[in-house]
Amino acid sequence: MNRTIVISFLLLITGTGKSQNLIGYHSNDIKKNMRETQNEFRLNNDTKNEYYNYLKFENRFGTKTFLFFLSENDTCIYTKLMCDYNDLKETLKMLNEKHQLVNKNNWIEEKNGNKFNISLKREKWYFTLVTRRSKQ
């Protein structure tokens, strides 16, 4: 029971923005991290793509998909989180509180001395957050 309360509290604190920045992590570390800290998501191995090397995680409701694009060495080079518009308000609040706003749909995240660009793209049925290492 206590474990459930702690996990629920952590999910509440991190919200939709819990899409941790795992750029630079090896695929095995990403799987472990997602399993241990993001119990909302499950690894989906059903889809294969011959052009991209990636890990795909989905939530059980089908409202969020989290993609980790990997290098030839299975190291994450960028991420894409796709969410239902029901999560947009909470996501924007988290982004504005935790990261430096560059313009309406772009933020800078600083982590361990590195900078990362987070961009929001509004699609017809969902929105996407793409996080990449900054070129600066």
Account of the protein in words:
It is a single chain. The protein has helices spanning 2-14, 27-37, 88-98; strands spanning 41-43, 54-59, 64-70, 76-84, 100-103, 106-111, 114-122, 126-133. The longest helix has 13 residues, at 2-14. An eight-stranded antiparallel β-sheet has the order 1-2-3-4-8-7-6-5, with helices on one face. With 136 residues, the protein is an alpha+beta fold. Mean pLDDT is 85; it is low at 1-17.
Low-confidence stretches: 1-17
How far apart the termini lie comes to 46 Å
The helix/strand class is: alpha+beta
Q: What's the oligomerization state?
A: single chain
Helix content: 25-40%
How many extended strands? Answer: 8
Please specify the SSE layout and strand pairing.
Elements: H1 2-14, H2 27-37, E1 41-43, E2 54-59, E3 64-70, E4 76-84, H3 88-98, E5 100-103, E6 106-111, E7 114-122, E8 126-133
Antiparallel strand pairs: 1-2, 2-3, 3-4, 4-8, 5-6, 6-7, 7-8
